[in-house]
Amino acid sequence: MQSQIVTFLIKCPDQKGLVAKFTTFFYEQGFNILSCQQYVNAMADRYYMRIRLDAAEAEISKKELEDKFEKVATTLKCTWSVHYGKEKQNVAIMVSHTSHCLYDLLERQREGTIDCNISLIISNHNKLKPIADMFGIPYYHLPVSKETKIQQEAQIVGLLEEYTVDLIVMARYMQILSEDFINKYPQRIINIHHSFLPAFQGANPYQRAYERGVKLIGATAHYATVDLDEGPIIEQDVERISHESTPKTLKGIGADIERLVLAKAVKCHLQHQIIVSDNRAIVFPESGE
Amino acid sequence: MQSQIVTFLIKCPDQKGLVAKFTTFFYEQGFNILSCQQYVNAMADRYYMRIRLDAAEAEISKKELEDKFEKVATTLKCTWSVHYGKEKQNVAIMVSHTSHCLYDLLERQREGTIDCNISLIISNHNKLKPIADMFGIPYYHLPVSKETKIQQEAQIVGLLEEYTVDLIVMARYMQILSEDFINKYPQRIINIHHSFLPAFQGANPYQRAYERGVKLIGATAHYATVDLDEGPIIEQDVERISHESTPKTLKGIGADIERLVLAKAVKCHLQHQIIVSDNRAIVFPESGE
Amino acid sequence: MQSQIVTFLIKCPDQKGLVAKFTTFFYEQGFNILSCQQYVNAMADRYYMRIRLDAAEAEISKKELEDKFEKVATTLKCTWSVHYGKEKQNVAIMVSHTSHCLYDLLERQREGTIDCNISLIISNHNKLKPIADMFGIPYYHLPVSKETKIQQEAQIVGLLEEYTVDLIVMARYMQILSEDFINKYPQRIINIHHSFLPAFQGANPYQRAYERGVKLIGATAHYATVDLDEGPIIEQDVERISHESTPKTLKGIGADIERLVLAKAVKCHLQHQIIVSDNRAIVFPESGE
Amino acid sequence: MQSQIVTFLIKCPDQKGLVAKFTTFFYEQGFNILSCQQYVNAMADRYYMRIRLDAAEAEISKKELEDKFEKVATTLKCTWSVHYGKEKQNVAIMVSHTSHCLYDLLERQREGTIDCNISLIISNHNKLKPIADMFGIPYYHLPVSKETKIQQEAQIVGLLEEYTVDLIVMARYMQILSEDFINKYPQRIINIHHSFLPAFQGANPYQRAYERGVKLIGATAHYATVDLDEGPIIEQDVERISHESTPKTLKGIGADIERLVLAKAVKCHLQHQIIVSDNRAIVFPESGE
Asked: Which residues form the ACT domain (chains A, B, C, D) (predicted)?
């Protein structure tokens, strides 16, 4: 294996000796353990681990590593995945009219703070094409109506396959995706909702926040599931507002929260910091190695 | 009028010249205007003012002031109230089992950061009596069941009258008050709810926050209305949590938010910073005079 | 006067009747007062006002308005300025190597959340020219060394005059400007410093924050004065970090704070929300009209 | 060993296989590992671990455990400490005139959110004795002047020994302790400073924050060292203020930050979450087990 960082995400029933067994396994294969983060859900008797390995001195092939680990995993009843640092992920961004999240992601990718390929942008409108052009990213305008939804989604799926997309980011794509589409990409679609969920699920959250007279507004990034706005929450944040705020100024304040929250969620996903369990996203903090 | 600070809270339809008319009125009665805070709700065409006056050089009686202002108010279609700094308000605290908000309010009143009399504590349990004793506040233990609710509330009303209570603070009083009781004290009952409303209305918010996997939890202080947890929000705040948090640790983190949020709301009320309109609480910031 | 919003910023010694006098004055000239924000510094006996007027029904010329107000101002010993909504301000951005603040400002201007012309970008390096090109903004590469500093600044001054620049934004321009330069543009140069001032003034704040082991890092936007990093603070914010953070990850976290803080400060300046007094920036909140 | 939780805090040079070795060691002694938190400082090549063990099924005595671990530690060049859950720590609180932090700590201890004995309160004034009496804690009034400082500190040392105090909390004790005193209790004195250090070290931070015109104020809890306000920072927080804030209102806002920050720091210390290294406090988050 070439010099690179390898990340394992593991979940299994809690049992004595797990950390010793896992770390000893990787140590014996010649890996240096850069960080080893665990979470024990004592109520559910479940164990979760994210372990980052430096492969520089490991003389094992990917195949061999995975086969060997599978044996350990079977004994301990683990579900697991492994991610190799050298493999850059392909991202598709879906948008409608609103540009702030799109700009933000393109910029961060350009600056290197989000490490991925942004392979394409898909929109049901043509409005944001000039931004795609500025950044030199292919832009697909796929209009959609009730009648054409099935075909449009089929076109999207075609594009996602063509570009071998790993992650779909709904950066204020204001359409509801079909169950079929969502089920095709479990934990691979990140949506940004412009409220502090579960408050103000559904449409017009800023207007409703204004009417309810809340003192803080927020945004929530979550994996899309078939239950609208009810998928596992990856990141949220809020900002203080005042009675002076109108639905319009709330939109402006909220835009900044949305940008940051979505970017953080995308980054956590790309860095393999997330394990989903029982509709909860366990997000391990970025390790400082 | 003796030397003191006088606060007017005014609401009326928006119209040209309001601030000039109000400030000129008070200026002509000999008041020095310490601060004059306004809010124009342009969407609803409503105008709101909080004006604080130094009465040191005003040689007008309360009666005269109020009569004169009423004339202005009638012309401009104002609803208004006036509050004299020398009149300390009487507060009743209602509690059940949980002590953190009670301690906090007693302490702040003792230290002078909340300026009022805490006249009595009412509880459906006897558990927190020792705290009342420590601080020398009368404690009334009024148990309640479905059957005795009407009588118990009548006893409470009796006590509130006996102590001429101005403000009722539900510092984690885990009973639902009757509509009759609530309607008797409009904008005079402050409740603390242990979630970031409108998320997790109703029972067990920390358990539900855990299950939903939110990344921040909060607390909300609001005026009690007959619609449970739907009254005008005075203050809210949140704190970041992690997947490590259990419902039990959430309770601990939440307790600190509840204390601060409730104390701030009570302070804003006592300082006459709040005007309620359309179920929204307009909370003017504390002026620095 | 055409239909537009007019903003007055006023400071004067505190005295009885000010708000009545000012608001009556504008009311009598036919203006509708949209918002009227005041601050009384009781310790220094100083009064500050920001008043926003709708000129739709005011049949007075600019000249006449200013002459009339000057008479009032002289009587009350006011310093004041007036700003007409129709006059878009010209902004110059100065940068070195770092792009995040530049991207952010360009984007916000493009999206309309910052209302100004970005007239030109000036840099001592050529590195960020491609970004200027993407957004179609003139980019001037003016290298600088100790020896050429005077000439380089003269060139900058020439450009600022050519473009009739109103505001200079140092978006991580890592050069120290000369006293002459700074004195030429009082309260017209906004700098972003990558620490929570007054902590970590000067160079390498993230490295020093790491070494000191602080638990939060921040950023500060301030008007540049001849005392480095000591000008009036317009906006600051912080973000929580952990012991895992390295100087490098601090830089990443800090970049997001810098972007937001600088954008907010620029917006407050452009919206005439700021009055400077005794090296303190009084920043009136955005009014919701 | 009786059923209890055992916590090890370990630091050593970084080297391959550490986590495997430590966790295997504890696993083999019959402990269940509840949580295992690590931090690798890659720049300094240092490794830190906090490991929490359930001793329910471990049939080893304390002595035996410590002897065995010492052998491992010697090989790996570790510095370490072990803490047994059943041993409640004794805390002394030192105060002067200000009561908010004192109230807060007493209350939290009473409610069980801070798990310790508060053995005694020491003050150079008599003012806060009534609070000690309310909570039934011995109060020692030890006045101090320049001349009597050595004797007064000797008296304090006597009391700390008499009560076998583990932790000294300076809850706004406004005296500077001597080097001798401080050196006697390394990492066992926690001080609260009423600013966001390193900003506003030394006296009158709120006055200076006002004068500097900062937009946020803060508080910092740190271990006391001989360099005043320069010890390892355990916890900090900030709160937004406005230009309306006076030094007096800053004091009020700051008091709430101080209370929370000090309480969190004390809790982290009592729960053995802290390892100090190079004047930085590594504070492991509370584990959710």
From this structure: 7-87
**Which residues, in sequence order, are CB contacts of A213 under 8 Å at separation 6+?**
A243, B232, B233, B279, B280, B281
What tokens does C164 get?
């009739």
With b for 16 or more beta-carbon neighbours within 10 A and e for fewer, the A247-286 pattern comes to eebbbbbbbbbbbbbbbbbbbbbbbbbbbbbebbbbbbeb
DSSP-H helix ranges across chain B: 18-28, 62-76, 100-111, 129-135, 149-162, 179-184, 205-212, 247-270
Indicate the DSSP class of residue C213: T
pLDDT in tens, B251-289: 999 999 999 999 999 999 999 999 999 999 999 998 766
Are B159 and B258 in contact, with CB atoms under 8 Å apart? no
Count how many Cα atoms sit within 13 Å of the Cα of residue C224 in the half-sphere of its side chain.
Answer: 26
CA distance B198 to A200: 8
| pLDDT digits 0-9 by tens, D5-60 | 999 999 999 998 899 999 999 999 999 999 999 999 989 999 999 999 999 888 89
Across the interface, which of A24, A42, A240 has its CB nearest the CB of D20? A24
Given an 8 Å threshold on Cβ–Cβ distance, is C38 in contact with B40?
no
Task: Say if D279 is an interface residue toward chain C (CB within 8 Å).
Answer: yes
Strands A189-193 and A167-170, by their bridges, are parallel
Spell out which residues of chain D touch residue A34, defining contact as CB-CB under 8 Å. 40
Contact: A34, D40; criterion CB under 8 Å:
yes
Q: Do D243 and C283 touch (CB under 8 A)?
A: yes
Give the residue carrying structure tokens 């005392």.
Answer: C227
Spatial contact of D111 and B99, defined as CB atoms under 8 Å apart: yes
B vs C: CB pairs below 8 A: 53
Q: Are D172 and D254 in contact (CB under 8 A)?
A: no
Active-site residue, selected from the candidate residues A166, A180, A229, A278: A229
Of B32, B35, B39, the CB nearest to C38: B35
Q: What is the pLDDT of residues C256-285, one digit of tens each?
A: 999 999 999 999 999 999 999 999 999 999
Q: Which of C243, C274, C284 to mutate to test the interface with D (most CBs of D within 10 A)?
A: C243
Angle between helices C62-76 and C18-28 (to 10 degrees): 160
Give residue limits of the domains in chain C: 5-84, 90-283
C17 CB near a chain B CB, below 8 Å?
Answer: yes
CA dihedral B16, B19, B21, B22 (to 10 degrees): 140
Is the distance from CB of D131 to CB of D96 less than 8 angstroms? no
A-contacting chains (≥3 CB pairs under 8 Å): B, C, D
DSSP state of B162: H
Homologous superfamily of domain range A5-84: ACT domain (3.30.70.260)
> Pick from C196, C242, C280: which is nearest to D213 by CB?
C280
Among residues B115, B227, B229, B237, which one is catalytic?
Answer: B229
Task: Residue count of chain C, please give it.
Answer: 289
Helix (H) or strand (E) holding C52: strand C46-54
Note if B104 is an active site residue: no
- Residue A146 burial (C-beta neighbours within 10 Å; 0-12, 13-18, 19+): exposed
* Domain boundaries B90-283, corresponding CATH code: 3.40.50.170
Strands C32-41 and C139-141: unpaired
For residue C185, give both structure tokens: 């543009």
Task: Provide mean pLDDT across the span B109-133.
Answer: 97
Residue from D98, D101, D103, D283 to probe the interface with B (highest B Cβ count within 10 Å): D103
C-alpha radius of gyration, chain B, whole number: 21
Residue D275's SS3 state is strand
| Nearest residue, CB atoms, A20 vs list D24, D35, D40 | D24
